[in-house]
Specification:
heterodimer; A: about 300 residues; about 0% strand; B: alpha/beta; Alpha-Beta Plaits; 4-stranded antiparallel β-sheet
Chain lengths: ~300, ~300
């Protein structure tokens, strides 16, 4: 206990007005600036460093997304099953609605927000090229999406190893699932980012992205369903090229034991799925760079 | 002294409008007011200086860097306060300014220190931890100024910093602009459509009109005496009677509002004449003062009109 009657300790700090002091320390280049922007972007995608309200949606979605994996893990431990009740790549496919909502809702945080509030001007006036800004923002969205996609895979993998399932099998299956997840993440981040970069209104971007991703997938699934019952699976295979989710399902069916409606048959079709999926991501990226170069010189 | 900005026949043709028309100008250190009506080319010039807009022809240099080849070097050394809103509402000023300091290449620790210091200089103390969505216009302008200064630029471009501010906040902002130029020793280019403000704070004035340079000189030169005397009298039909009496005495008189402007070029000793004339007519002589130019006059002269 200090005695309050004692005089104030002499070490007590006093505020001095030192006037303006110039900065003479180091100044990083564009690479370090982009890394800092990437880190902030990933944090902002989950609402960290922003208002309390903006943390609610991403974390609720993330929790719901992880819930099945946790339940599966619990069951595995209790029952001592000899294989995972849900396979690694099937997981992202069953939680695709959550994933779609997450990407649709958080892409505007990274893209529309700066457009809506005009803060894009402040970034463009800094030693950071418009293309670097666009690619970094996209990278942040990709990482956030991958956190969403890969966490359940990781959780299932840990549970599988704890349940003493075959290490090599599990590692191979989880690895393929991770590669598939990466491709899905690439295309979703591309599509959602590009849509959000053309919208100053968050609501519009969310609705448009959900329409393109989820409704697009619904239409493709319907076409594939009809095609398979009508006995013309080739139509279904081609239809599958038109949505990131159906591309994912097609490649999943091609690369794993999982079954999907109208999977791509033949090397040419499988290759087409792969090319379209990667090409879609590349096209979206090019679109983003073009969009921000335009904005900078407007 | 070495100019901070130098342009050479700088032209920007947007097709529908010619925003800049062969503009050649040099801007030195200190505070320079950039004056011009809307569409005179001010914003286009600032964007070219930041290396964002590519000029159609001509060249521009900022702090010795060419805008076409070294835009990143320029943007590292220049601070910019845009005219429009540019603050996200869901982060605090403190967090945002730290972030933007890092976007200018400062390491995190230095960015924190600089942000705290600069926010104190612009006068955002306790409020800096609050989300910017709840800020008044004055506080927002201060936050915008802080982000333009946080990386210790050698030149700041301030686009209409007093826009939308009430008189007290405007005075505070002008005081800050003056401090940046005089105490912080940072070159300032400030645009405003309120000429009185620029007369107050700037050392130099550059006047643009239709993308062309109308005039560039020290602020004092704009405000030199015009060589006219202004006279104000009180009384029944005072100004009219006074004007007639002076005209019959051979002095050229023009009415300017309630005042009379007398041409001093004539041979007569004016002060005595004014005094005697007012006394003869029984009018109250309120004031006799030398007439000074206002920056507005540059526009008026250019258009061949004199508006009173």
């Amino acid at each position: 206990m200090t005695d309050p009657s004692l005089p104030v300790p002499t070490g007590r700090s006093v505020i001095h007005d030192l006037g303006y002091r110039p900065y003479t320390g180091p100044r990083h280049g564009e690479g370090a600036i982009a890394r800092a922007l990437l880190a902030t972007g990933v944090r902002h995608a989950f609402g960290l460093g922003r208002s309390g309200r903006s943390k609610v949606l991403p974390f609720i979605l993330l929790a719901i997304n992880l819930l099945p994996a946790l339940v599966v893990g619990g069951v595995m431990v209790l029952v001592g099953a000899t294989e995972l009740p849900i396979s690694y790549p099937r997981y992202a496919s069953s939680t695709q609605v959550l994933l779609g909502i997450f990407v649709a809702a958080q892409a505007p945080v990274l893209f529309s927000r700066d457009l809506r509030h005009g803060s894009i001007t402040l970034y463009l006036a800094r030693p950071l090229r418009a293309s670097t800004y666009a690619l970094t923002r996209w990278g942040a969205l990709l990482i956030a999406t991958l956190v969403f996609l890969l966490l359940p895979i990781l959780l299932l993998y840990v549970v599988a190893l704890l349940g003493e399932l075959d290490f090599l099998d599990q590692t191979r299956d989880a690895g393929i699932a991770a590669a598939l997840a990466l491709m899905l993440g690439l295309s979703l981040a591309g599509v959602a980012g590009l849509i959000a970069s053309f919208s100053t209104r968050r609501g519009f971007a969310v609705v448009a992205t959900i329409a393109v991703l989820l409704i697009g997938n619904g239409i493709v699934s319907a076409v594939q369903g009809i095609a398979s019952t009508q006995g013309s699976p080739r139509v279904g295979e081609v239809a599958g090229l038109f949505s990131p989710y159906s591309l994912y399902r097609g490649l999943m069916a091609a690369w794993t034991d999982e079954v999907a409606l109208c999977p791509p048959t033949g090397t040419a079709m499988e290759l087409a799925y792969l090319v379209v999926m990667l090409g879609l991501s590349a096209a979206c990226l090019a679109g983003l760079v073009w969009r921000y170069r335009k904005l900078a010189s407007a | 002294m070495e100019p901070v900005v130098r342009t050479e026949s700088l032209t920007k043709d947007y097709g529908v409008v010619l925003a800049l028309d062969a503009l050649t100008v040099e801007i030195g250190p200190g505070i320079t007011g950039l004056v011009g009506a809307n569409g005179a080319g001010k914003s286009t010039l600032l964007k070219i200086l930041l290396g964002l807009v590519t000029p159609t022809s001509g060249r521009a240099e900022v702090l010795g860097h060419d805008v076409a080849t070294e835009p990143l070097a320029i943007r590292a050394a220049v601070g910019y306060l845009p005219e429009h809103d540019c603050l996200p509402p869901d982060v605090s000023a403190s967090d945002f300014i730290v972030h933007l300091a890092m976007m200018s290449g400062l390491p995190r620790v230095a960015a924190r220190e600089r942000a705290a210091e600069v926010l104190r200089h612009v006068g955002l103390a306790e409020e800096r931890y609050r989300l910017m969505g709840g800020y008044s216009t004055g506080m927002k302008q201060k936050a915008k100024l802080a982000q333009a200064l946080v990386h210790d630029p050698r030149l700041v471009l301030l686009d209409e910093p007093t826009n939308g501010l009430d008189p007290a906040a405007r005075d505070e902002m002008l005081g800050l602009v003056q401090r940046i130029g005089e105490d912080f020793k940072i070159a300032v280019i400030v645009t405003s459509h309120l000429l009185g403000e620029l007369e107050r704070v700037s050392n130099h004035v550059v006047v643009l009109d239709g993308g062309q340079l109308l005039r560039a000189s020290a602020t004092d030169e704009f405000l030199n005496a015009t060589g006219a005397l202004l006279v104000e009298v009180l009384g029944e039909d005072g100004p009219n009677r006074m004007a007639h009496a002076l005209q019959s005495a051979g002095v050229s008189v023009t009415a300017r509002g309630a005042l009379l402007a007398l041409d001093t070029a004539g041979p007569v000793e004016l002060h005595d004449l004014i005094r005697d004339t007012a006394a003869d007519l029984g009018l109250g002589l309120v004031r006799v003062q030398a007439d000074h130019h206002r920056i507005e006059d540059v526009f008026a002269d250019a258009r061949g009109v004199r508006h009173d």
